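Marked as duplicate of an earlier ticket. Keeping the data here for the record.
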Amino acid sequence: MKILLQLKKMKLYFQDWGLWTSNPREACAFSTLTEALDFLRRNRLSETEFEFRTWNIASEMPA
């Protein structure tokens, strides 16, 4: 299971700096929720602008 960051307003997934994707397979994946939160805080991104999505690698589908 991987954690993805999805921008609430646009429903796009974070891929890399300045890059967003509608395809969860192309998104930057975090191993844990803590890792994703640390990334947001370290880069001064607002937690309220993002939703956390889990990605089930076995089924290749967002949960």
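See parent ticket for discussion. The longest helix spans residues 33-42.
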